[in-house]
Structures are given as C-alpha cells and as structure tokens.
Batch of 3 targets.
Target 1
Amino acid sequence: MFARQGFVGYTFAESERRRAAGTLPKRSLVVTFDDGYASVLRAKPILDEVGFPATVFVVKSFMETGEPRWTGIAAWLDSALASEHAPEMRPLDWNALELLVEGGWEVGSHTLSHPLLPFLPDSELARELELSRKWIAERLGRCETIAYPYGRADERVAVAAAKAGYLCACTLTGSHAVDERYRRPRLELRDRDVGLRLAIKISSLSLRLRHSRLAQAAHRVPRRRTWLPDA
C-alpha cells in the first residue's frame, strides 16, 4: 500500500538527518520493530521487495538471557511459545543484526532492561540510556537512536537521551501531542491492521485525531498499574 502510494522508506536516523537538512520527502515512511524478536527476520524479504529499510530496537538483557522480562506480554508470549511460532520468540543474535545492518537496516537501543524510564532516578536513567548505546556501538559501529520502553518518555527522559548521545528517539502513545527530536511519535500496527482497518488507521483524519485535544485528554487519564514494571 505505502509503496504504491509513492512513499519513500528510511531508517529512523536517516529520516531525522533529512528532516534537519530539509530534504525529507512529504511521503516518507520509517518502519520500526521493538524488542528484537527473531520474528523480525520474516519482515526483511517483504520490506526488501518494496524497497523499505527498517530500524530494530534491541534490549540487552533479552539478547543475553533469551527471556523478555517486561510486563504486558505474558498472555500472548505463552500462546506463541506453545505454538509453531516459538522459534520466532527468541531474540535476534549479533550475526542476524550484522546481516540486517549490511542490508541497509538500522539497529537502535531499547535500553538495557526495558524499564519504564520516567520512573527511574537520574542515575539509573542515565545508565540505561548510555550503556545500551555503548553496547551496540561497540559491536556494530554505531547506535544513533532509541525507542523508549512502553513508548513512554517525559521531558526529563528526552533530555537524558540527548545527553546520552542519541541523534533522536521515539515514543509510542495514542496521543501525538509532542513531536520533537527526542520524542518522535509512532503509529502502532498489529497483525489485524489490514485492508479497510489499515486504511482507516493511517488516514489523514485518524492522524489528525491523534493530535486533537480529545486524544491528549484521554492520554492523560491514569492507567491501571498492571502496565507498570513489576515492583
């Protein structure tokens, strides 16, 4: 759909550089994948076919242990592990990441341990941001971007990301009230978002609604504690 409509695909870092230079086409697309599951490899040939690169954000603890220790995924993870998709739930390894980079993709940080960053004290926040970037850069040569775990970042987190040396960073929220270098909003797409549902979700009206006061008000409503990290 996007390729047919004339969209041009970029990695997250390249899109930000072009934005700063004033050369980012109006119809631009950045495809991102959080967490670094092996299932990302299934998307590579599909995206290659339409000429789109992507950015995958990896978690250090997940790559090292193979266990995604963050909240909100238990139900679907258990279901996936009990199915034929279990191998896809493993983390990407360095060999796979190196091949993705060679193929024009970007590897960014999703922190060391996937915490909810706004709740961390300054020292732990800096550690999560700085050491995860260094860890990736030492192996792949660079790490320019970060996706905040749970898609959440306040102004303090954004400032810390800039201080940690990232070029840009992205969130993932229902409201797109903030669109700045260290809090670029994203639109989440799931497997059910196809056909008419996809068309509606990416329509100009839908995107305008995400910038509306109603969406901002809904975003400010306190969420249940179940999505917060385990105490």
Target 2
Amino acid sequence: MHPLDNVIWQALTTRQTQFAEISGAARRFQPDVTALCAFENPERPDFASLAGLIDEHRTGAIFIDEPYENHPGWEFVAGAPLGQMVCENGRFAPAHADSATEILDLGPTDSAEMLELAELTRPGPFGTRTHELGAYVGVRSGGKLVSMAGERMKVPGYTEVSAVCTHPDHTGRGYAAVLMSEIMRRIRERGETPFLHVRSDNTRAIAVYDRLGFRTRKQMHFAVLRRVRSE
C-alpha cells in the first residue's frame, strides 16, 4: 500500500500513534486535535468499531473513495469531492509577499486565535490542539492573526500541508503561497514530500497549489458524520 492510500489510518498507525484513539478496526485522532477518523479496511468500513470512538450526537470526519452511503446509526452532516495533491518538485513563493510581511512561528499561546481564524474560513477540521501536529506559521496585521498554514497528517516520507487560510479582509496579498512555501521548505529539509487535500470545487485554492508545483494524485470524498441512536 502506498503511504498516501488510506492516509488517516496510515498516520495513526505510523508517525502519529501518540494522537490515536483505537476501537477495533477503527481509529481516530484525539477529538481536540482533529475530527479525522479512519477504518483499517476502507472497502469494508466497520461502523460498529467507529461507534466505540464517537459518543452519540458527536461527529467525526472520514475520507472515502466513493460518495457516502447511509449507514444505520449515522447521520450525514456534510461532505464533498476531495482531491489529494502531492508536490514532488515544487516551486516556492518569494520569501515575503511584500516588504512588510513577517512570517511568525505559531504555538500554544496562539491556539485561540488559530481556532478563531479556522472557524471563520473553514479550511477543514481544526481543534484546540491541532497545532501539536507539526509546525504552524502565520502573518499578523495590526497585531491580529490574519493568515496561517501548517502541518497535519504525517506518514512515512510525507507530511501534509494543512489549515491554509486567510481572513477575508486580507486575501489577495500572497500570504497563502508564502506561508505554504515556508512549511514546504521545512518539510523538504527533513527529506519528506509535501502533500495536501483540497475540496475539488475550490478552484481558487487549487490554482495556488498548481503554481507551487502540487499535482493531483487521486480523487476521493470526505464525509462528516454524526452518531445518532439506531432505530
């Protein structure tokens, strides 16, 4: 199996086992880290095992090859086609979007602002401890965090670029490309390859990723599911 196939499961069984919660043939990241969950065999998803990880009325997110089909005990909340892109030979943006831009390392003291920005822009599941998954960098304007990017899933030889987002009042200034380039540089320095996931209908983001050298590896879907009482 390629390291990027069934990538959530691979992350939770290799480089990020410290964040894993386990129930039978299902695993999930600790809920305050991220909502991502996975099955050992995605072709035969074990929803009974997943129910051992998610309380009633709580949600989890899965990556699947085909659109989600209804399963007893689960309510479909949201989902969309998803592209997985890999940067084998990337092109980095200039060191700064403009002469006034300063790239800052983000950490635990920035968590509340990171969560606020993620909730506003919705780049994907983001929790109070997501920053623990890897390096995060950002740009501030007037003291306020207005753009960020970081690392999420890690599997052998690959690290995911994630949480790429910019406040709507500060788009069009090149922040996303610059911050992604910094994260990609750090990944490359470790001898790893950057990859990412993006909604297939997010054409603006895909155009940025194309310019940075990312190419689509596969198309799949994501689904956010809520556990409900079975009839």
Target 3
Amino acid sequence: MRAEMAEQPDVLGRLADRFEDHAARVRAILPDRLAGVAFLARGSSDNAAVYGRYLCELAGGRPAGLVAPSLLTLYDARVDYDGYLVVALSQSGATPEIVTVCERLRAAGARTVAVVNDATSPLAEAVEVVVPIEAGDERAVPATKTVTGQMLALAAVASALGPVPFDRGAIAALPGEVRALLADAAEPAGLADRLASAERLFLVARGLLYPAALEAALKVKETARIFAEGLSVADFRHGPIAAVDEHVPVVAFEHAGPARDDVRDLVATLEERGVPVGRLALPAAVPEALAPIPAVVRAQQLALNLTLARGLDPDAPAGLSKVTETH
C-alpha cells in the first residue's frame, strides 16, 4: 500500500499530460443536448463518482447523479437514458455488475465513458470512450493510486462539459503538490497515534470535499478495522452528532471555499463538548475543485498509519479481494 501510494504523483502526472486529450474525446461523443450525467460504480470508485457528480454538475449545468445498479440487475427497470452521459468507473474493469449495467444503459440511449485502469478490460470494451488511468498493477487490496487517478480523470470529463473552477496551471502543479504531501507524513502519523485505540470514528467534510470524507471512512474501515463513517457536515448535524462524545472522535476536512465556515463552526461546537477532533492540512495552492485529490492522499496516509499502529496488515484486509464479483 505504501509503495503504491508513492506512485501517485507519476500517475497523476501522466493524466495531467493527457488531460486535454481525454476531455476532447469525451466532448466528441456528448449528446447534442445533454440531459444529465449518471455515474456507475461501486466501492472506492463510487466515492470518486461522488466527486465527479459534484464537478460535472458545476461544469455542465445539468443534473448529475449516481446509478443504482440493482434497479437494472435485480428489478429489471426500463429507464430511458436518451441524452445522458453515463460514466462507469472501475479499477479492474472486470466487475460483472458494472459491465452489465453499462451495456444496458448504452442500449437505453446513453453515451458511455469508462474510467478504468485496464484499458483492455470488459468494461472498456462496453463503452464508446475509455479514459485510462494507466496506474499499473495495484497489488494491495485497498485502492490508492487508482482512486486519485480516477478523480483527476473525472476532472477531465467535467471539463468536457463546460467551464471548470480550476485552470491548466493547477492541473500541471497537482502531481508536485501530492509528492510534497507524501514526503511529509508527520501530521497523519501523529493523528493516527491519537486515534489508534478508537473503535468508532466519524470523518466529515462538506461540498466538494465530501467525497474525500467518504473515501477516508472506507479506507479506515477496510484497513484499520475501525467502524468509520464519512458524512457531510450538514448530514452530521441531522442526527449523527448525537452519537459522539469524548470516546468517539471526529476528523474534519476543510479547504478555502464556500463550505469552510460551516466546517469550522462544527469543529468549534464539537470541541466545546469535549469531542476529540482531528484535522489534516491540505495544500492552500490547490484550488478547492481539485483539493479532494490531496485530501484522499491524506486519508490514505491516516489509514495506513492507523492500520500499522493497530498491528494489522494494510495490504490484505480480512474478507476482501481485489476484484469484487457483484452481479
């Protein structure tokens, strides 16, 4: 896991070099009148898809959301996808459920894109445009370099739809910012030491950083075996806040942007109640719309250090395999 995390700047660098090409190929297949964007994924890819959902709706000015695969695989729903762009995400490209649903949505009128690590996979063969991550083999069960790669690929998809809240210079600088984070793991390591005895943990954010909270919780659950939940700050206030006390810590992600004051207000409220709150700094130079990528890197560092502190093997979590055969 540590070695694959270290490969992320190179993976992101290759994607940054081809960013405009990826966007152009997606732009070429867009419906004449885009009705909306639908994302199809499971697991870590689903968390990346939430990021794509936020960014594509901002850029394209059309509704964006997540497909419920079981509606098609279990309930045989007949849905008209004419005018929609469907973006399917899978690290392996081999999950049967994702391939099947993508094929059905294409038959229902959708234009289809796959964001996938293996450009020769069954999913890649089922779509019109492939945006390859090209991260190389990922041997650790927890996905790391493929997740951040998917997120940058989705930024390219969003830029095919309309104006995005970042410029080409920010894309070019992103690999270096991630490299600097990876070289300085003292903060997440220190936080992991504080949280190592916790059995429950909330990770919160809001707006564009919300997907990072989701992915952070997944990484902590699957590696450190801590019952962790990722939530929007707004949803956290609607009930789960009652479940925290001095024994249930909260980790908050924040960055300059419209959501920052809300996150800071929650942190102040929790600290007044004696709830342990952890924070992980993100590079200020990265615009908010790209900040979920370094936030996920920080989450990986936290999960890795938590796992080692608890005497567990981060590369082979109990009960998990690299390709999950859902149907």
